[in-house]
């Protein structure tokens, strides 16, 4: 691959390295002993996981494209287009959902929307979780 198409090989190495390092970062965060139950840490982990999964998907398709025979290129192109479109739609749904959640949180924080009514059980459970940290 490095001799046949050096540009594709460079992309493969970049995306594969990003996926590998992002995966290692998540593992390190999880075993580090940091208080990861806080929302900020969960958001950081979620973003790192998105980066890792996306880079791994790109690496997969690059390697599939370069290892498939010429006779299968048209079928591979169709499968790749459908897969990438599906992946992007799913990513957009998740991204929009998180943007909506973040906007609601900001509006509640600054008093534009009333706080959610919380049951006493939820408050008790939250208090127990803070003692463990």
TrEMBL record:
Main location per UniProt? membrane
Q: Which GO terms describe its cellular component?
A: plasma membrane
Which residue intervals define the domain PGG in the entry?
4-64
This protein's membrane topology, according to the annotation, is: Multi-pass membrane protein
**The protein, known as:** PGG domain-containing protein
**Any idea which UniProt keywords this protein has?**
ANK repeat, Membrane, Repeat, Transmembrane, Transmembrane helix
What are the transmembrane regions?
6-31, 43-62, 82-100
Question: Which compartment or compartments is the protein found in?
Answer: Membrane
Q: Which domain of life is it from?
A: Eukaryota
